[in-house]
Amino acid sequence: MTLSLAWDLRAKAELLTYLIVAHLLERRQHGKWLAVTEVVERERRWFELHEDVVPWLERISISSWSRSLAIRLESGMPPLSQRSYEKLLKRSARTLDFRVALIRFVYLHSFNHLSENGWFFYGRLRAHVDDDRR
After folding, report:
1. Exposure of 87 by Cβ count < 10 A (0-12 exposed, 13-18 middle, 19+ buried)?
2. DSSP calls for 102-125
3. Stretch 87-94: mean pLDDT
4. Which residues on neighbouring strands pair with residue 124, listed in sequence order?
5. Structural domain boundaries of the chain?
6. pTM of the entire structure?
7. Sign of CA dihedral 19, 22, 24, 26
């Protein structure tokens, strides 16, 4: 297995953002959060589109945070017009549209969450620090 060079903190934050937005859209559309199986399916789709090879423990960690962060962010998220919501629904299966304020808001919180929870050690990604210890 070769770890993708693109799998850095930004890529992790993008995956987390994608999953949080999926939760928020599901909540707005159906009044409930995504089930675990739906989160796994979204994650699988994300990696198919981005063709990244990522350690499974990191994938599970990021996926597991998505719901709790979505719940926390739901009350503070910027207003979303019906038009923006519809655009977001159409694009959410494929990509993140950073022109939408909600995406930028969630990405910022995702990036900060990962940074604050030890995904960086000594200015480097945790995976690189762990590689140095072997």
Report:
1. middle
2. HHHHHHHHHHHHHHHTTSEETTEE
3. 68
4. 121
5. 9-133
6. 0.79
7. negative
